[in-house]
Amino acid sequence: MIVNQPRPRTLAGLAVTAFLALLFAALPGHAQESRLPSIGGSGGGLIAGQQESDIGQQVMVSIRRSAPRISDPLVYDYLSAITYRLVPSAPLQNRDLTLALIDSPAINAFAVPGGIVGVNGGLFLNAATEQQFASVLAHELAHLSQRHFARRMEQQETSAPLTLAGMIAGIVLSAVTQSDIGFAAIAGTQALAAQNMLAYSRAHEQEADRVGLDILASAGMDPRGMPEMFEIMMRQNRMQGNRLPEYLSTHPLTQSRVADTRSRAEQYPDEKIRDGQEYHLMRSRLQVHYAPSADVAVETFEAYLDRTDVQRNDAIRYGLSVAYLENRQYDKAVDILEDLLARNPGRITFQVTLAEVRLAQNRMDDARALLKDALARNPGNYPITHTLARTEIADSNGAAAAEYLKQLTRQFPAQEHLWLKLAEAEGMARNIVGVHRARAEYDVLMGDLESAQRQLRQAQEKLPAGAPQRQVVTERLAEITSRLHARANS
């Protein structure tokens, strides 16, 4: 069962029209109307390169500050893997993407200049197949690759990308948080100006559909997943009794668009592509996450297993093990996971989840041994390393946890929660300089450069002159100070 979030609060007067016109039309909400903008990049005209990057960074700061996020390393690792399976087939100029996993059961996804791609947890709940899920990502990558946003800006002959970045951030936040948060950034006449720049034409949506189908096929996935996903969205609108409002006219999700996409998809070879198991494992994991309670999650997955056609379905059994974990029925969770591992030796998701159960049982040595063996076979793996760091923190081994977290921050420097965990581990290890440095990087990602500057100054003061680490801190401090001066003078 899935938690339904409340509908967004009503906004008044002109702001309502401006807000609704800016929301992304192609992705209706899971249990409420909630749409995110899908925004392309620059075509090399009025905005490009560094400006695009600045827009993306500003939007990510706003998302980090205000949008609910899922930090589950298993789910994030899957999202990263499926996205980068598609990326080589997308005609993107910049393939260095930043992924945002939003904690909401609504069907939503968005793309922002600077390579920001966001996905709601609810997309996993509603896409019945991996092909359907991937089709939404492919559509977003298509918008970025075709740089639709820049085309709109050039049509408007505007050159204020950083001002617009604040508007984009407000739009995204108002959508993903289901509230008015961030809406002040796009109030009044500015919102009307942004409306003209962000509204997609039918031609842009059709182009994104066409390019997205090519991306899917080239990546070895089934293009038929796209019309299937569109039909799910249309069906949900009908079930909710919602009539598509007028503001969808510039980027409509209509029966004719579904029919056109299906016709195009049927032109690709029908290769009967099968889903990867990992998608369905993550889908089960998130079904537990969004269940109203652990008890309900257990009841739901036990009912699934009562059906004779799914009794040996590993994804259902895995979901039940996660539900048992959440419901503190640890022995039952262990029984399922050990059986799954016996039949799927080395499956990382099962190993990590079993370690999570051992961690919940305070059996630190068992969790550590399991994870270290898994890491030896999969060096650098994100979920394994992340769970090892959790285990060491739970066992008060700050120095060991810090070593794992330093590896992760090198791999994923834009994941702010890793820097916060690193600061915690360094504090546990009594490495005060390490605490200041980790907190500084966290503050940078949160857009608080003044706090980052203070943290680095404190780190600098605690290091002796001539120490190699002091030189590193001094260089980073100079960089942050330069950014603060540039911001003050802009």
TrEMBL record:
Pfam families: Peptidase_M48, TPR_16, TPR_19. Functions as both a chaperone and a metalloprotease. Maintains the integrity of the outer membrane by promoting either the assembly or the elimination of outer membrane proteins, depending on their folding state. One of its GO terms (biological process) is proteolysis involved in protein catabolic process. This is Putative beta-barrel assembly-enhancing protease. It comes from Marinobacter salsuginis. Keywords: Coiled coil, Hydrolase, Metal-binding, Metalloprotease, Periplasm, Protease, Signal, TPR repeat, Zinc. It is found in: Periplasm. Its cofactor is Zn(2+). Zn(2+) binds at residues 139, 143, 205. One of its GO terms (cellular component) is membrane. Belongs to the peptidase M48 family. BepA subfamily. Residues 1-31 form the signal peptide. Its EC number is 3.4.-.-. Binds 1 zinc ion per subunit. InterPro entries: Mito/Outer_Membr_Metalloprot, Peptidase_M48, Protease_BepA, TPR-like_helical_dom_sf, TPR_rpt.
